[in-house]
Amino acid sequence: MAAHLSYGRVNLNILREAARKELREFLDKCAGSKAIVWDEYLTGPFGLIAQYSLLKEHEVEKMFTLKSGRLPSADVKNIIFFVRPRLELMDIIAENVFSEDKHHSSRDFHILFVPRRSMLCEQRLKEQGVLGSFINIDEYILDLIPYDGDLLSMEYESAFRECYLENDQTSLYHTAKGLMTLQALYGTIPQIYGKGDCARHVANMMLRMKREFAGTQNQILPVFDTLLLLDRNVDLLTPLATQLTYEGLIDEIYGINNGYVKLPPEKFAQKKQGEASKDLPTEPKKLQLNSAEELYAEIRDKNFNAVGAALSKKAKIISAAFEERHNAKTVGEIKQFVSQLPHMQAARTPCFPTLLKNEIQSLSNNSRQYPVSPVSASEAFFDNLTVEQEFMTGVDTDKVNTYIEDCIAQKDPLIKILRLVCMQSVCNNGLKQKVLDYYKREILQTYGYEHILTLNNLEKGGLLKPQTSSRNNYPTIRKTLKLWMEDANEQNPNDISYVYSGYAPLSIRLTQVLARPGWRSIEEVLKMLPGPHFEERQQLPSGLHKKRQQGENRTTLVFFLGGVTYAEIAALRFLSQMEDSGMEYIIATTKLVNGTTWIKSLMDRPESQTP
Amino acid sequence: MAFITANWNPLGEAFYRKTELYEMCWNLRDGLRDSLVAAAPYGGPIALLREPLRRSPSSRPQLEIYSASGVGIASFPWKSGPVVQLGWTVSDELLCIQEDGSVLIYDLFGSFKRHFSMGQEVVQTQVLEAKVFHSPYGTGVAIVTGSSRFTLATNIDDLKLRRLPEVPGLQGKPSCWVVLTQDRQTKVLLSNGLDLYIVDNTSCTAVVPPGLSPQAGSVVHMSVSFSYKYLALFTDSGHLWTGTSNLQEKLSEVDTKKTTTPRQMVWCRRPKSQQPSVVLMWDRLLLVAGVCNDTIQFPLEDPCVLIGELDGVRIISSTNQELLQEVPLVCQDIFKIASMAPGALLLEAHREYEKLSQKADEYLREIKEQSMLGEAVKQCVEAAGHEYDTNTQKSLMRAASFGKCFLTDFSPDQFVSTCRELRVLNSVRESSVGLPLTHAQFKQMTVQVLIDRLVYRQFYPLAIEICRYLKIPDYQGVSRVLKHWASCKVQQKDLSDEAIARAVCVKVGDSPGVSYSDIAARAYECGRTELAIKLLDFEARSGEQVPLLLKMKRSQLALSKAVESGDTDLVYTVVSYLKNEMNRGDFFMTLRNQPVALSLYRQFCKLQEQETLKDLYNQDDDHQELANYYVTASYKEKRLESRLSLLQSAVDEYNKAKNEFAAKATEDEMRLLRFQRKLDDEKGAGLLGLSLQTTQVRSDAVSIMWAEPEHFQATMEALLALGLHKQAEQLYRDFRVPDKRYWWLKLKSLAEKEEWEELEKFSKSKKSPIGYLAFVEVCMKCNNKYEAKKYVSKVTPEQKVKAHLAVSDLEGAADAAIERRNEAEMGAVLSRCSASDRLVIDRLNRARAGAAKK
Predict the structure, then answer these.
(1) Does the distance separating the beta carbons of B569 and A116 come in below 8 Å?
(2) How far is A419 from chain B (nearest CA, A)?
(3) Per-residue pLDDT reduced to its tens digit, B532-564
(4) Which of A120, A219, A434 to mutate to test binding with chain B, by most B CBs within 10 Å of its CB?
(5) Crossing angle of helices B439-456/B478-489, nearest 10°?
(6) Strand ranges in A20-87 using DSSP code E only, listed in sequence order
(7) Nearest Cα to Cα of residue B22 among B294, B369, B323
(8) I need a labelling partner for A499 at 20 to 30 A (CA). Which of A397, A540, A577, B806 fits?
(9) How many Cβ atoms from other residues are within 10 Å of residue A559's Cβ?
(10) CB-based contact A231:A196 (threshold 8 Å)
């Protein structure tokens, strides 16, 4: 059921199994029937670890969402709260427990803190007078969640905001802990590289924790050769750009959360000729996106311009295989055909790979077609893309951009505007005060003055800033790291720049250069990027030094602190597959983001009191 | 070697032997007479209190503590009250039970640790007799008081006193009693005259041992076996009854023909043996009585003390110490005269082999013919484990090793482990160490406990040697020893803090599993706070340092350690502790020096205490954040005046923060709010009413205006929707709205209201800053093709094709495209053509072909 986790270079299913085992152990601690009360935020991440069936096997009969007031009635012996350690949740739990006592008598309460128990929260429960009502107070250490065969995520949405706006490094502590857990399962990672303040902090904590756990480490041959910690604020540009891989686009258009995408129901209408389809599904359909689906795995990381071709090629192969049934004469042949059926069926059902076909095709139809109704979106899409690419190549980044101006005038979604303005600022190493103020005033007047807080946040996070020095160092960085490739080949890529049709993500370039020829070659550029860069070595016990076979690839774990985009992941997968790279990448992050979700997490909206 | 059976004494089918363990190192002037003696099982220490009940204050009795081999460990005058009983706990602590019911606990070295009381009423009634007993729960104490009541504490480390029910007819103390542990319950069995009673928590039941002859008389002495499984009763007529301790089964009844009560009576049996026996001691006689009617008798020259062990009885006299035990079966097999057991033959074979005699081969053949060689090796190894004499051990192990050579697939595990264990046992049996453990006892107590015991005795080097030799993981072995050592070291009063800290650091270093915070906690307990802080510095886990630092009231240090650990929850914990401890000013100052803690506290306040947040920003002169705070607050305010005043505060703060833009923007916001109010005042309800009478779209706009009063764009939209062009114009000028945006706004608004004439006028008012394609598209959006067409001609040449297409004028589009000779545009027009547009298609194709030729 989670086989796709074990196919990669590193068997991440070990991590998942470890997490499942711990969950089972906790559930068994509470003997008898149970109901789980969920902190809603956790249901998504938990879905990646265990399905309902596992819970059911351990006598979980009911599930509720945590909310204030009285708990729904359920004839169970145990009520277990699965919560993040947050004070406001403690207050709700206290309310639940209080109202419970009057109505029921003998239900046992338990709390499972995810990912860590907190003295502060327990103190709060004590103050509320309910701490004694809990039989078990436990923690479920769920830091790094296996997301796909080569991908781990903490699903910690507010990490970037907390680190850069609020100076709250809780997420980094969890990161360090998560990396320790990972090392306990996959061996000590001998080399650590990093860039950025948060990376430095995490590395420091890891080294400290290693000293703390000295002697208790089990002796495992290291699976990872290198760990690379990258701060998101080292590369603020990449997430702002529109991702142009298939998966990236799905994320940009529909949003992927906790590995699931919610698609509008009309995508599933069976289009049979002539028939008015009566039973249209009305609810959005949730689909899980990962490498378990072979076809999806094949096209997810392609540039959207190459998807159409790939799909139709695949479709031909499948229908050819399907046609063979007419030629199957002998029983043996039929048998062989039948054995291939499930595979073909899977590819034929209107599942997600084909879902976006229309959108993709209309988008990839590069000759700017004049609008037939839905494609007007496509025109806007390309205008937007053009502007992004102008910024990335450094065209007119120091002036007010007409396109942005028009978008504001037409009241396009605020986040779109913010993405563009921030991008211009990043590509110009800050905007001239006049330009910046103009944009800001336009935004405040058009979208409301309350967004002054959001603008302040963006400035604090460095996404939006006034130009302080006259020198714009972005062009230097762009040239040195070859961030713009004029002739990006989208169909048969030979460079990572294909993921943004020309722009090579800075973060991935750093990763690439680290592998070969090494960061020493780009010292100057590294100095221009924020935060320190460093290298640390962790001593391995003698006997655990790997004897590398000739031609054996090295494995690097790249950890993005503050989020990573699907396009960046695609770029790393591309690097892993390059024959002469000699390096395989496993990706870890606090959260999978795109420009929209990322900017959203930085926005502040005061709750307005309507009279 | 030949005389190995010389000290064997047969009893029934078993043999008993007495082995000398030590010549005692002590030099007791008066022997063991008139002394209270307590010796712990498993080769435990011996405590001696001379004349415990002598009450003259001038001469205080001396309390002495010796190792099992008689090496003096501690000696000090007893200054407290009269002692009734001495006893040892499982962790080698000495319990001194006083007459007044208080129990004083000392460690092996005679330093006082703590005390507890067996109940207040005991002070009056006095303790008549007391017993120390061991159970799975730990070490317990039982007393009987002057009022003939029993009080029990099953575990002195988790003290819960239980007063047992009254025993009918009991005056003073019973003639004898024992503590039993059965079915997880602790009970007392006692004899009073002819009656036997079992007293448990709730009741007192009279019992009769099965099969005890009626003429046997009353029970005057009783003893329970090491495992609480068997019970022995001695009656005043000299009868010894043995049976199970639950009084369900009788084993035997022996008439010892002694009518005096024995001084001591102890069970002597080894686990799994079918031959339980009891050792009784009188002044000059030691008697072993078993299931059969036989007895063994040993004369005694000196007063002795018996200590029941798991697999025998230790006999301590003033000069030496012996172990009396049943000879293990395997030793019997090997050493019994003329034994033909495989082990015996192998031993013989090896002996001949060493003599270079060919007989060795004969013996070996004999064993091999029976295919018993494996068994023979096993027997020798096992027997070696049971032997105390090192030479015997050696010859047995050598024989086993010799036999092993002739076996092909024999697992060496047992051989190797026995070798190792014997080496460890021999070293702890050394008189200087004084732990006379048998192999069975060692197995039962486990190596962990053995190491603990060595540590209690401060044999640190030996303990470490053993850990290393037995390859015990550091965590359970060496580190544990070092931890004890360090905890002991910090108590050395003659050394400076500096010296101790250094010594500890050098020895302990980075040993895994040694917690410096534990050691520091120990130092703190001993009142050495400075040393504790020094030691805490070595602790790698900052998290561990925090609780102790808080306890020592070093809260500032605790805070910085918490910050260092990176564990934000820990930081929160210290912060909330500080908040309660300190006054607000100091608290804020402390936070100020810890930016990480400060920002976490800010987060906390943001969610929980908005007011404090303001104070924090104020104290830090963080004007920017303060301004943001006021802005946020203004949105929570319903009344316009308060809202304006909060915004004014925000403006002030933004100015102080030199954020001119924000100040200006906020001023704009206030201006807008005032403008809205003015408008509202002037137009009054009429304004709102008017909007409701018009179309749906408009009422939306208006509702936005009122829902989000600071919304400039919405205000403009509403004004235009309401036809208040003058006011809109005013805002446009006052707020320096860019032309482009104003034109867009007005264009959309007029089109939506379908004021086409007005729109046309507007389009001609000056050159449109947004071009005219926008006009075409907006009109089309409002489904007015007629109006849209009006603007097509005004569109710039570049946008002409687009404009024509927007109004679905294919011919116009084709003309424009052909005129511009633009391939892409022609293609675009073509793609919009359907089959019915033959003419246009042909024209375009011709034009393209023409263009291609050129």
Answers:
(1) yes
(2) 20
(3) 888 888 877 777 788 888 888 888 888 988 888
(4) A120
(5) 40
(6) 34-38, 60-65, 78-83
(7) B323
(8) A397
(9) 26
(10) yes
Per residue, what are the HEC states of A196-240?
CHHHHHHHHHHHHHHHHCCCCCCCCCCCCCEEEEEEHHHCCHHHH
pLDDT, residue B685, reads 32
Q: What is the pLDDT of residues A387-419, one digit of tens each?
A: 999 999 988 888 999 899 988 888 889 999 999
pLDDT above 90 as % of chain B: 33
For residue A436, which residues of chain B lie inside 8 Å, CB to CB? 661
> pLDDT at residue B51 above 60?
yes
Confidence of residue A325 (pLDDT cuts 50, 70, 90): low
Structure tokens at B601: 């506290």
Task: Write the pLDDT tens digit of every residue in A53-108.
Answer: 888 888 899 899 999 888 888 788 889 999 999 888 999 999 988 887 665 567 88
Sign for the CA dihedral angle at A301, A303, A305, A306 comes to: negative
Average pLDDT over residues B722-732: 81
Mutating which of A449, A465, A539, A607 best tests the B interface, going by the most B Cβ atoms within 10 A? A449
If contacts are CB pairs under 8 Å, which of residues 165-204 in chain A contact chain B? Answer: 166-170, 172-173, 176, 201, 204
**Mean of pLDDT values over B480-500:** 85
Cα A129 to Cα A98: distance, rounded to the nearest angstrom: 9
Separate counts of helices (H) and strands (E) for chain B = 33, 29
Q: Do B740 and A205 touch (CB under 8 A)?
A: no
Chain position carrying tokens 């550091």: B474
The Cα B11–Cα B33 span in angstroms is 31
Taking alpha carbons only, the member of B574, B629, B571 closest to residue B596 is B571
CB-nearest partner of B735 from A368, A445, A607: A445
Q: What does the pLDDT read at residue A117?
A: 85
Rounded CA gap, A584 and A225, in Å? 10
Q: B542-551 and B555-565 helices cross at what angle (nearest 10)?
A: 170
Find, in chain A, the residue whose alpha carbon is nearest to that of B636: A609
The minimum CA-CA distance between B743 and chain A, rounded to whole Å, is 9
Q: Give phi and psi for B609, each to the nearest 5.
A: -135, 85
Task: Find chain B residues with C-beta within 8 A of A87's C-beta.
Answer: 604, 607-608
Q: Which element (helix H / strand E) includes B17?
A: strand B14-23
Look at A608 and B707 and tell me if their CB atoms are within 8 Å: yes
Question: What contacts A505, CB < 8 A, 6 or more positions away?
Answer: A235, A238, A496, A499, A565, A567, A568, A571
Distance from CA of A165 to the nearest CA of B (A): 10
CB contacts under 8 A, A 66-85 vs B, are 85
Query: What per-residue confidence (pLDDT) applies to A374?
Result: 37
User: Would you call A609 and B628 a contact, using CB atoms and an 8 Å cutoff?
Assistant: no
Chain A residues within 8 A of B510 when measuring between CB atoms: 211, 214
Smallest Cα–Cα separation from A539: which of A74, A238, A187, A43? A187
**Closest residue of chain B to A368, computed from CA coordinates:** B828
Min Cα separation B491/chain A (Å) = 26
What's the rounded Cα separation, in Å, for the pair A186 and A423? 38
Residues from chain B contacting residue A200 (CB–CB below 8 Å): none
In this structure, the dihedral spanned by the alpha carbons of residues B697, B702, B705 and B706, taken in order and rounded to 10 degrees, is: -130
Nearest to B198 by CA among B213, B179, B214: B179
Distances (CA, A) of A91 to A67, A131, A329: 10, 12, 70
* HEC sequence for A165-197: CCCCCHHHHHHHHHHHHHHHHHCCCCEEEEECH
Contacts 24+ apart (CB under 8 A), B757-761: B759/B787, B760/B787, B760/B790
Give the pTM: 0.73
Yes or no, beta carbons of B744 and A442 under 8 Å apart: no
B26: CB partners within 8 A, 6+ apart: B66, B70, B71, B72, B318
